[in-house]
């Protein structure tokens, strides 16, 4: 449910624009998790919340852990992924590009274009 917002936060908030993050005063931590497929998931937790040992990767459903070099193993044997399947998965990045474009449009309007 909150996946889109997570993408927005990492994509746009990381840049110089930063207005998406404004007004967020509650103390939070962004904890990165990595799954066996190399997907990075950043989970935003309240600072007092307990950090879970594992997090289900929202892209492929594998368990993800906090050690990038040693992600938790897949619970069952999966067929080796082809390059095409990998590329197809990465196309979800287009959502982030659309959000970036939106932010750039807003910036242009503000400059009086
Ligand atoms: Zn994954």
What does this structure look like?
This protein is α+β, with helices and mostly antiparallel strands and 113 residues long. Helix content is 31%, strand content 18%. It has a four-stranded antiparallel β-sheet with strand order 2-1-4-3, with no helix packed on it. The structure holds zinc ion. Zinc ion binds next to loops.
Q: Quick gist of this model?
A:
It contains 3 helices and 4 strands, in the order αββββαα. By secondary structure, the protein is of the alpha+beta class. The protein has a 4-stranded antiparallel β-sheet, with no helix packed on it.
**How far is the first residue's CA from the last residue's CA?**
36 Å
Q: SSE order, as H and E?
A: HEEEEHH
Helical residue percent band: 25-40%
Mean pLDDT value: 78
Spans of at least 5 consecutive residues with low confidence: none
Q: What form results from the Cα inertia axes?
A: flat
